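Methods: holo model generation. Sequences were used as deposited, without trimming of termini or removal of tags, and paired with ligand SMILES retrieved from the corresponding compound records. Each pair was processed once, and we did not select among multiple samples. The sequence and zinc ion SMILES for this entry were:
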Amino acid sequence: MRRSLVCLALVIILFSVGARGQSTPSAPAPLTVIRVGTLIDGVSEAPRKNQLIFVRGERIEKVTDGSVEIPSGARVIDLSNVTVLPGLIDAHTHIFLWGEDPAKGGYDANILNAGIALRAARATVAARRALEQGFTTIRDVETEGAGYGDIGIKQAIEEGTIPGPRIFGATRAISTTGGYNLEGYAPELEMPKGAQIVDGPVEARKAARQQLEHGADWIKVYMTHRSWVDKQGNLISQPTLTVEELAAIVDEAHGWQKKVACHAYNGIGLQRALDGRCDSIEHGLEITDAQIAQMKRQETWYCPTLSPYYGDWAPADTPGGKRDRARAAVHEISFKKALQAHLKIVYGTDIGGIPWTEPIAQEFKRMVSLGMAPMEAIQSATSRSAEMLDMKGEIGVIAAGAYAEVIAVEGDPLKHIEELEHVRFVMHDGSIFKNEIAK
Ligand SMILES: [Zn+2]
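and the model returned the structure below.
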């Protein structure tokens, strides 16, 4: 009874605050018009020349032909000699990883030696770097032992305390006993883990509930962990969760209208990820034809993250070296099959696993070198990722009604995709964050 009175009082207060907000007539936000030489809008198959983007507040009001009159008093940004695109979306990042150098202790040092304040400071820089490079939205797929730090960083960005992209955070991620780092220590020691460990559908569902309660926008699940090459030369990946465990998580997340991203390399774990109805497959190094067909049927998103599998190979004659080469070899085949089958491929780098000092746009050239058309690669990092994030028409596109996420590069990225590694202008939610070229 008392509680319902408190609720009623709260409703009245909220309502009166809202009503007061509405009754104050506020002047329309000032108009900014961007003069565009070449526009790649994130959706259309071909670029358009000489366009105008009208921006009011944080949204795009309209996009018109360059001949339309610009109202007097509007602020004009001249990008008439360059190529303009929507802010990019990286659908697989880790702001709480720092590309840990194995020589300096690698992944384990991050958890064992770096305090949470140090990690948050680094994550703050990572967020800024993403924005500087034109990535105005990221799906950050787990904090690697930093708890709910991604949601904290997201809050700091949203309240304007630090600059950074729009973040879809997955918080802690979920794996099973024997399915995540830290490992390899004396069995007597209870080591901290980089993910939340569950065993059984009840624990799995509870972990999902805990993460969703604390702000997870996505749930990230590790469906495979260790990988190695067997005597026949096949890449083998250790499976983690059972279908029942995963299904409990997916059922819970879907009830909250959230989605589940599954790290899955190949084999049994990848099959369980699909049978458990994961929304997106992360990495998907080796996908069989039957699994491609199942992904097509279930409309599963595919976030291949090619880049991390090309660097830092161990020597060729070591078990690790064989594994590293096998991963890249099968990955290329899977990516080409996915292209041919028109799977829904989204752009993801796994940056953080790769040092944040490297270009986040490096995945574009990997995708294009394996046969993806440059325009499709751009769309994978714009409108297609936006659709996966349930933000279709709001981000990843330059059109009326979308958030004013606008970037520019000097050259033609359709001819030289590497141009996207040199973003020279960034507007985020209608505010200019970086400007090295506009007059
Ligand atoms: Zn990752």
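The chain has a mean pLDDT of 94.
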